[in-house]
Amino acid sequence: MIPAGPFIIGLGFILMKLGIMAPHPSWLTMLLGCLLAGVGLGFTNTSVTNTTTGSVSNERAGMASGIDMSARMISLALNVSLMGFVLVEGVGSSLRTALPGMLMRHNCDHWQSGSRPEPPFCLIRVFPPPSSTRRSQGFGWVMLYGGIGVWLLVPLSFVVFDRKEAADPPRG
């Protein structure tokens, strides 16, 4: 179950990327990807928790659960930061191709954060604010990062959770 969970999560992320890149993206175009990622997360969390707490003696199950939660929180914090960086870079890349250098450098940070200032009046007619397509490119990069990142964990999980070791009874 552990390798299947990340694979399903990755498939969900890739489907969300395809959904957000649709001609008219909406919650319906992303629904299947969201559902698959959630199902994969359920498979993964339950299996990993059972494996973690079951691999130690009963007296140490609480410690194993604490280590499991700590590892989850650390990876969550790191990946939220990385996904934020990927999002900003994706939107920035899209804006750099759509706008000239000076205007892009001046207003990019404000547009990416959603609190865009109005450009000077003469530029409003020439350069309209970025559309949702620009933001979609950034979110598409985030979904691709999530999908590929979790798929890289699938072969690693086969190595870590070797079937031969799983057949041995827990120590304790």
Number of helices: 7
Q: Would you tell me the structural class of the helices and strands? A: mainly alpha
Give me the strand/helix succession. HHHHHHH
Task: Report, as a whole number of angstroms, the end-to-end distance.
Answer: 25 Å
Question: How can the largest sheet be summarized?
Answer: none
What is the β-strand count? 0
**Unreliable parts:** 102-106, 119-128
The percent of residues in helical segments reads over 70%
| Shape label | elongated
Provide the domain count.
1
Strand content: under 5%
Return Rg in Å. 21 Å
Written overview of the protein:
The structure is a single chain. The protein has 172 residues and is an all-alpha fold. It has helices at residues 4-20, 27-54, 61-98, 101-113, 121-126, 132-160, 163-167. Helix 2 (27-54) runs antiparallel to helix 3 (61-98). It is elongated and about 60 Å long. Residues 102-106 and 119-128 have low confidence and may be disordered.
